[in-house]
Amino acid sequence: MDHFLYRGGVLHAEDVPIPEIADEVGTPFYVYSSATLTRHYRLFDEALDGMEHLVCYAMKANSNQAVLRLMASLGAGVDVVSGGEYRRAIAAGFPGDRIVFSGVGKTAGEMALALQGGIRQFNLESEPEMHRLSEVATGLGKTVPVTVRVNPDVDARTHEKIATGNSENKFGIPISRAKEVYAEAASLPGLDVIGIDVHIGSQLTDLQPFELAYTKVAELTHILRAEGHDIRRLDLGGGLGIPYERSNDAPPLPIEYGEVIKRTVGDLGCEIEIEPGRLIAGNAGLLVAGVEYVKSGEDRDFLILDAAMNDLIRPAMYSAHHDIVPVLEPPAGVDLRPFDVVGPVCESGDTFTRQRPLPPLNEGDLVAFRSAGAYGAVMASEYNSRPLIPEILVHEHQFAVIRARPTFDAMINRDTIPEWLEG
Ligand code: LLP
Fold first, then answer.
1. Do both 100 and 248 map to the same domain?
2. Which of residues 225, 249, 276 is at a domain's end?
3. Which ligand 1 atom is the nearest neighbour of the CA of 159?
């Protein structure tokens, strides 16, 4: 459920009509609903009720400072994967003991930043990384809680570019080697081995891979405890999928996911962390675009929008589906006709969808891409020198620009001309 509904024939974000925002900021733009973000966070929090837990929002999905501030105010923790994300978390008001640091390639500088600023735990992904963190931590006179990310070798049944839990990819250590890797971690100064981390992929629409992975984590907990490790925290990653297509079967709910967690690892007495990103932010955001042209091709019609692949890369990168709806509700029973919906960027990859049945649309009309709140704005670029588009946050009847559209001057002036080319 989200808070983007037609009211009186006009699409609203909570109590704000979308055309009102378009009039003020121009198109294209992203708009997020505070109520949906809040609701989704709470669904996870409630799903883990009865267990000691922390929901650590994976900010890679949407790292706007206002979204982060909202999450921090709800009591969430946060999962970061870079020094930049760590700085964002601190700036948004997350205390260090609610920040978890994940990622395969942490630099010594990033480690030092988090050690000095405060950190709940590092999720380590390799032996060289364990050694480096040990050196950095001891150099600063600190001991830091760590988990090791294990790769359980399960098929997440998701898009190949976002599956992370099978043995062929770069993430974590093979679960079969966990005993020796944990022994080594425990021998290193500066590291306090407190738990196990796992994340098997993103946009999982089936609970079975979670069940398999978490069952392996439970087994590993017993094995490592028998080896003398005080395993007391399990970070179970993110990955629960969202309904991108309203017409399809709905993926499992957070409450059902919570039941899998309780069933598999619930009786170990461990504190549970999860790192959801997409499910919190995805359906809390729209990308709103204007129709620039309706063009008739030889065998098909094109809807040319003012938004492009640089604004929302998911269709081009993962062949992802986003529902596209007109901002003005079409009359019931109106004839739909197929369009290729494209942006103005100079390559064929700038195609959001092909032959999508849509109601009649004209130049100047507004359309909205649903489910664009996660991995939308954060993955945008300025390809074709198209400035990053604004982000708007709605709260009931209020809306605020939470990232303004940069001016062309600001964009151009980030580049500098070397001396030898001056004059
Ligand atoms: N934790 C870790 C260690 C992760 O790598 C990820 C996502 C998450 C948590 C959050 O997963 P979520 O709950 O959002 O599924 N750009 C792609 C998605 C990449 C996901 C990367 N890792 C997309 O647009 O589909």
1. yes
2. 276
3. 25
Q: Which domain holds residue 11?
A: 4-31+282-412
In a domain, 47, yes or no: no
Indicate whether residue 38 lines ligand 1 (CB < 6 A): no
Count how many domains the chain has: 2
CA atoms within 13 A on the CB side of 275: 26
Of 276, 303, 332, the residue at which a domain comes to its end is 276
CA of 146 to the centre of ligand 1 (A): 21
Angle between helical axes of 83-92 and 65-74 (0-180°, round to 10):
60
Residue 165's pLDDT band (boundaries 50, 70, 90)?
Answer: confident
Distances (CA, A) of 134 to 106, 125, 299, 319: 13, 14, 63, 41
* Ligand 1 atom nearest to 203, measured from its CA: 15
Q: Give catalytic status of residue 270 as yes or no.
A: no
63 lines ligand 1 (CB under 6 A): no
pLDDT at 160 over 90: no
Residues 232 and 140 in one domain: yes
CB of 200 within 8 A of CB of 165? yes
Round to whole Å and give the CA distance between 30 and 17. 14
Instruction: Please identify which of the residues 1, 346, 417, 421 carries the catalytic annotation.
Output: 346
202 lines ligand 1 (CB under 6 A): yes
Strands 144-151 and 121-124 come out as: parallel
420 pLDDT more than 80:
yes
Q: Residues 290, 259: one domain? A: no
What CA–CA distance (Å, rounded) separates 74 from 360? Answer: 42
Ligand 1 pocket member 314 (CB < 6 A): yes
Look up residue 27 and give its two tokens. Answer: 């198109």
DSSP assignment letter at 75: T
pTM: 0.97
The pLDDT score that the predictor gives to residue 382 is 98
